[in-house]
Amino acid sequence: MRWVYELRVLDLDLENRPLAYWYDGATTAEVTAIAAGFIGGRIKCWLLGPNTMAEMLEGFRKMYDAADMVTGHNIRGHDLPIINGALIEIGHRPLGPKLTSDTNKDRFKTKDFSWSQENISQTLGLSEDKSHMSNASWREANRLVPRGLRLTRARAIGDVKQHMALRARMIRLGLLGAPKMWRPR
Question: How far apart are CA 81 and CA 177, in angstroms?
Answer without folding.
Answer: 21
